[in-house]
Design brief:
alpha/beta, 13 helices, binds pseudouridine-5'-monophosphate, Indigoidine synthase fold, binds manganese (II) ion, about 300 residues, globular, about 15% strand
Length: about 300
């Protein structure tokens, strides 16, 4: 049921650093061909950082840990790929289906594969209006129970960020801003939310991950890594576009799994591509930090 790419299998055998990557960002988060180009750039960033990338997806009932170039390209163009989270991950494999893994499903697969570090763009969280829709991403509960350190540029700014971080606190998830005192807001480097924790080195993050395991604490860590200042979009510039996209989603009755892909696609159009350019920059930045953390973790040999 699990298939490892040869370089991932070799890295596992040698105890070499590996970084997991998700595939929903490819199938539901970015348009073709930028999605595939970005996936390849991100894999290259991880290799340049001395780790092996393992992009994760279910293809025809097989859970792949590491994709070939052909698989990545096919996935990037396919139209009918499922978006898999904790609830439907096993069902997809059981039926021989094809699905892309969200943050939650990628964490589960990484844990199964013995991979401790995972890079993505932004985690899912509490949607605006969740007090009536109850739309809270399964990513938050996964962070509370699966021991993988997730490097993201914060939660996506289309969400209700204060409520998202409140839920993470309730669930006991360490939210660690990298190198600054405020939480980043995905396309923007800073926000007015103070970071619950701050760390300035990959070594510290890696030690905290290992220590949580030794203390018997379940769950992972969320590393909130700010987008490089030169690539960011100021929150004030983005706010009217986010509000417009949210209003359209509401008017069109977009719900459940479709909400995040709809909002990201509309923002791409409304910002004339600027949101995608920033998204690509932040994912690559996260990949570089994740590779550093994985290298530190491999030294401790967990
Ligand atoms: N990061 C990105 N783009 C994305 C995602 C992350 O830059 O599209 C995906 C992840 O797979 C994450 C999902 O788990 O968005 C959140 O979906 P939802 O809000 O439906 O839980
Ligand atoms: Mn949701």
């Amino acid at each position: 049921m699990i298939h490892y790419a040869p370089d991932v299998a070799a890295a596992k055998a040698a105890g070499a650093p590996i970084v997991a990557l998700e595939s929903t960002i490819i199938t539901h988060g970015m348009p073709y061909p930028q999605n595939v180009e970005t996936a390849r750039l991100v894999e290259g960033d991880i290799r340049a950082g001395g780790a092996v990338p393992a992009t994760i997806a279910v293809i025809k009932g097989v859970l792949h840990i590491g994709l070939t170039d052909d698989m990545l390209d096919a996935l990037g163009q396919a139209q009918d790929v499922a978006k898999l989270s904790r609830a439907d991950f096993a069902a997809c494999i059981a039926r021989g289906g094809t699905g892309a893994t969200t943050v939650a499903a990628t964490m589960i697969a990484a844990r199964m594969a013995g991979i401790h570090v995972f890079a993505t763009g932004g985690i899912g969280g509490v949607h605006r209006g969740a007090e009536t829709s109850f739309d809270i991403s399964a990513d938050l509960h996964e962070l509370a129970q699966t021991p993988v350190t997730v490097v993201a540029a914060g939660a996506k700014a289309i969400l209700d960020l204060p409520k998202t971080y409140e839920v993470l606190e309730t669930l006991g998830v360490p939210v660690i801003a990298f190198g600054q005192d405020s939480l980043p807001a995905f396309w923007s480097a800073t926000s007015d939310l103070p970071a619950p924790l701050r760390m300035d080195s990959a070594a510290e993050i890696s030690r905290a991950h290992v220590l949580r395991g030794q203390m018997g604490l379940p769950g992972g860590q969320m590393i909130a890594n700010p987008i490089p200042a030169a690539d960011q979009i100021p929150a004030a510039t983005l706010a009217p576009f986010i509000n417009q996209a949210l209003a359209e989603a509401e008017a069109q009755g977009i719900a459940a799994k479709s909400v995040t892909p709809f909002l990201l696609a509309r923002l791409f159009e409304l910002t004339k591509g600027a949101s995608l350019t920033a998204n690509i920059a932040l994912v690559r930045n996260n990949a570089r930090l994740a590779a550093e953390i994985a290298c530190e973790m491999a030294k401790i040999a967990v």
